[in-house]
Amino acid sequence: LRGAEDPVPVSGDLCGRRGSWLDREVESGGVYVYRLEVTGDYGLTELYGPTEPVVMPGTARGLTLYEPYPSPAADVVALEYEIPAELELVTLTIYELSGRRLSTQTLESNPGRHTLLLDVGDYPRGVYLARLAGEEASRTLRFVINR
């Protein structure tokens, strides 16, 4: 559950008592408080939290490429990126690990957080690099395709 006043459900996968949660609906500069409610065997519920307030970094940090998900992927990879200010040109280039360029796309260049769903259904199994490039900065992350 997210929020101090009016909590809302967050999605994720909790494997037994171990696992991780990734809240992809936060806004840069926002402050969030988290609570975890675990319903186990026989409908027993355990409550954890609240956490200390978590401050999300503001947009002053620059061009950002978030970890591609899922990774490993089978058919589609979601690539989230954030742009701090209006840019003339933002591109996303996909490379094989060997460095061979597979594709380049021009992306939405308005400030804010955006998501691109990349169809990787025709890509063979392997490790790939996603490079987000703006006018004066670039970020590169890897993702895995495993069918």
What do you see in this structure?
This protein has 147 residues and is mostly beta strands. 0% of the residues lie in helices and 44% in strands. A four-stranded antiparallel sheet has the order 10-9-12-13, with no helix packed on it. A hairpin with a 5-residue loop joins β4 and β5. The model is unreliable at 7-19 (pLDDT under 50).
Looking at this protein, list some descriptive labels.
single chain, 147 residues, mainly beta, three-stranded antiparallel β-sheet, 13 strands
Task: Give the topology, please.
Layout: E1 13-15, E2 18-20, E3 31-32, E4 36-39, E5 45-48, E6 54-55, E7 64-65, E8 76-83, E9 91-96, E10 101-106, E11 112-119, E12 126-133, E13 138-145
Antiparallel strand pairs: 1-2, 3-6, 4-5, 7-8, 8-11, 9-10, 9-12, 12-13
Radius of gyration: 18 Å
Through-space gap between termini: 33 Å
**How confident is the prediction overall: mean pLDDT?**
78
Which blocks of ≥5 consecutive residues have pLDDT under 50? 7-19
The secondary structure category is: mainly beta
Share of residues in helices: under 10%
Summarize the structure.
By secondary structure, the chain is mostly beta strands. It has strands spanning 13-15, 18-20, 31-32, 36-39, 45-48, 54-55, 64-65, 76-83, 91-96, 101-106, 112-119, 126-133, 138-145.
